[in-house]
Amino acid sequence: MHAIVAKKRQGTSSTRTFFVGGVAALGLCIALVGGHRAKADNARAIPEIPAESKPIPTVSLSELVTSVVAELDKAELPVRAKQAILDVWRNTPPESRDDFLRKSVQTAALWNPRLKTLVHDGAVSVKAVEPSDEAQREVDRLPTAVRDAVRVVLVGYCVGYRRYEWALEWLNSVQPEDVADPAACLLYRGAAHFGLIHKSEALADLGRVLQLPEDVVPIRYRVTAERMRADLADMSPESLKHIARRMDDVERRLDHGEHDDQLPKIENGIVESLDKLIEKLEQQRQQQQQQAAAAQSQNQSATRPASESRLMKASGQGRVTKRNIGHEAGWGDLPPKEREKALREIAREFPPHYRKVIEEYFRRLASESDQ
Questions:
Q1: Higher pLDDT, 353 or 104
Q2: What is the pLDDT of residue 1?
Q3: How far is CA 113 from CA 7, 83, 149, in A?
Q4: Which of 1, 212, 294, 316 has its CA 20 to 30 A from that of 35?
Q5: In a shared domain, residues 119 and 197
């Protein structure tokens, strides 16, 4: 990504340079989503845009151009520089909000040659987009609408370089409703909050992008905002996705040579979250093992033959379904001695409480035979 932003070709125009910076920032926004994006889950609910978040009123391009020209007329600039800037706005008015940002970049370079390396040169360096006190003072001298537009462009470069803290610093004094391109302002700020894992702030900014009129938001911005909001939907503080984001943040800070007091706190927080996650997974595994063992025990009990000590203590009246089996051989009529012998044999084979049931059975057979 850095190579895309920093790449310089011979004959690169300011429009080309601006476009490369914007694509870098937008590409980084998409990469932020795709880096840890899980498989799509159609049932996942995307957070609703808060009702109290009112749509941003957008300023028309003609009003912005009028204000720029009015400030230029009063500005104390060399005659040739002033005329060149006026030609930028009067001769070819901006055709779109993107075009307004481009013309603001041109104006900054003509207004102050020192700003050319800041926002106009084809090889915009990381150092050039740092919101130093000097850089901010130079930008603040520009006409109001141009100043805010240039800040948005700088934020795009900062997001492309993953300098999210710088991006937010450039936008400290900028209100999206006053900017020529509120969609870019909100998307870049939302991407910065996304990279810093500021979930609520990112959801708010990205939601406001989607509330803007369709003619103000390019399709690529809308799609990116929707994807980023969807990715934030299931990112709870102790989830694996949240931990992975924090790991990325530590890696980013180390890549930038940051070794402040905040870094150890982030690292310790990651370790604690991993310990909690591992403990939770271990508890779930143990519960699953216990449930599986209990289910297996129940299955074995259901299929194992009952032991003598587990026989049901039930008794019946010895009734059976009557069958037509004929009347030969004195069926059911045993002599007293043989009946007693049979009962003794049965008593040896079965528990004692079955004797009463068996005796009742023979008595009923004899009674039905007599009838």
A1: 104
A2: 34
A3: 21, 15, 18
A4: 212
A5: yes
